[in-house]
Structures are given as C-alpha cells and as structure tokens.
Amino acid sequence: MWETKVMEIRDKVKESFMDVPVEKLNEKPSPEEWSIAQIVLHLAGAEKRFLTLALESAAENQSGTCENRADLSVFDDPSKKLKAPIEPTSEFQKKEDLILALDESRSYTSRFLELYTQEALKNRSMNHHRFGDMPIWQVLELLGKHEQRHLVQIEEVKRRIL
Q1: Do residues 9 and 144 make contact, with C-beta atoms less than 8 angstroms apart?
Q2: In angstroms, rounded to a whole number, what is the distance separating the alpha carbons of residues 42 and 159?
Q3: Distance CA 18, CA 34 (A)
Q4: What pTM does this model have?
Q5: Is residue 78 scored above 80 in pLDDT?
Q6: Residues 6+ apart with CB under 8 A from 83
Q7: Is the confidence at residue 64, as pLDDT, over 70?
C-alpha cells in the first residue's frame, strides 16, 4: 500500500512547486520558518536518512521479532510543530537542483523496493531516533506520512508568499 502512496505523494510534492518562481522558492514566510526550497531539501535529506537506515538494518540479516508498529500519528496534525534533527541549508536553490535532490533521494527508496519485499522483512526491525524500534517495512509509511505533512506545509508557504 505505502509502496504506491510514496510515489504518488512525491509526484504531488514535485508538482506543488513547479509553478513557483525560483525567487519565491527561496523566500521564507517569516525568519523562523522554512522556504519551499528548504522544505524540499529537508524531504530529500530525510528520505536518504530513513532509507539508509532501513537498507542497513535489512542487510544485517538478523532475525528477530518486531511486533509493535511505530506510532506515526505525530505526522497527522500539521498544526503540531516538530523539531527537525537537521536544518536544511538556506543557500539559494534552483528548481533543477531541487528536482535533482528529490530524484537522488528517491533512488534509495527504489533500491529498497528492488531488494526487499514486505514478506522478506516480516518481523525485522530498525531503530529510528524518534520512534524507536519499528518494523523495517514501516519505513515506507514513515516516508509517506512525513512527505504528506510537508506537502501541506508547502501549500501553506505558497499561500503566504505568492
């Protein structure tokens, strides 16, 4: 299910800023908020970190049990602000560079999906810095919910700067 959703959400993320002038992509709605470019770079960096962790955990070939899914409901309410572990750069970004960053990070997800199936990773876990032990396959839900949350943020930033 999330295998398809992450692809659809990513397409929506890309579409969300295609009509935004490059100057506006780099404009923050306020000094303490992120620009659309920073949000996009954050998404690319997070995907790379999430999927690197999943790929490394899957490659360890350790069997075990992970019966508890991580509670990802924190992503469901965009009004609740979360602190990102890594701040994206505030350097000026071109649209092409943002697309490239998203495509490069998506290669990690594609590799994961090429190498593993949900059944192959059944009961296998990874340890996420915020959610603790979670099933490796749940990384796709984590990625999808994270991007969906920031897609809402992108639309809000657009509304405020355009």
Answers
A1: yes
A2: 20
A3: 18
A4: 0.95
A5: yes
A6: none
A7: no
**Spatial distance between the Cα atoms of 33 and 57, rounded to a whole number of angstroms:** 33
Give φ, ψ of 110 to 5 degrees: -60, -45
Q: Quick one: pLDDT at residue 65?
A: 66
Q: Which two tokens stand for residue 67?
A: 């019966």
| Helices marked H in 19-75 | 22-25, 36-59
Helix (H, G, I), strand (E, B) or coil at 102: helix
Six-digit token pair at 134?
A: 């979670």
Query: Is residue 37 within 8 Å of residue 25, measured between CB atoms?
Result: yes
Please, are residues 46 and 119 in contact by the beta-carbon 8 Å criterion? no
Residue bearing tokens 């620009």? 35
Phi and psi at residue 132, in whole multiples of 5°? 70, -150
pLDDT (mean) for 10-27 = 98
Q: Is the dihedral of CA 16, 34, 7, 4 positive or negative?
A: negative
When pLDDT is cut at 50, 70 and 90, the band that residue 147 belongs to is: very high
Handedness of CA 19, 20, 21, 22 (dihedral sign): negative
At residue 66, the 3 state secondary structure works out as: coil
Least reliable range by pLDDT among 19-23, 61-65, 108-112 = 61-65
